[in-house]
Amino acid sequence: MTVSASPSALTLRLTKAQVAAFLDDTFPESSRPLLGQVESLALNHLRMRLDPDPSMRRPGNIVSGPSLMALVDVAAYAVIAAHNGPEAMAVTNALSISFLRACQFEPIYADARILKLGRRLASVDVRIWQRSEDRLVAQSTVGYALP
């Protein structure tokens, strides 16, 4: 399988339904609702939606940071799979996140875009928002090691 070297040369290898099925097969059934659902897929863009669960609540009635980091990680994993094919052994090798404002208990969206997809490493930008794409809750850069 060939891998595109830059985002401008990317091609989709999976459909939205195939990415969703891949995530369902890869993660335990009990954890899937806590990791978000694929909302849309386009070339170099995957959007996930997460409806917060009471287990994600932290003091101040906001969504916990670890819950947001899990959403970021899964969104990055999913956008890589959509463009690289369903490889379960791709693993996170770096994750940097900046929390920009409190995340309220309402739908959360994560937009993942590939910065670079190489043979061994991938870098993904993930932005988390609520209500409006202009109202960022967090921004993250995620690195993945590819088998």
Describe this entry's structure for a reader.
With 147 residues, this protein is α+β, with helices and mostly antiparallel strands. It has a single domain, classed as Roll (Thiol Ester Dehydrase, Chain A). The protein is 21% helix and 37% strand. It has two helices and eight strands, in the order αββββαββββ. The strands form two sheets. Strands 1-2-6-7-8-5 form a six-stranded antiparallel sheet. Strands 3-4 form a two-stranded antiparallel sheet. A hairpin with a 2-residue loop joins strand 1 (37-42) and strand 2 (45-50). Helix 1 packs across helix 2.
Topology:
Layout: H1 16-26, E1 37-42, E2 45-50, E3 57-58, E4 62-63, H2 65-84, E5 91-99, E6 108-117, E7 121-129, E8 136-145
Helix pairs in contact: 1-2
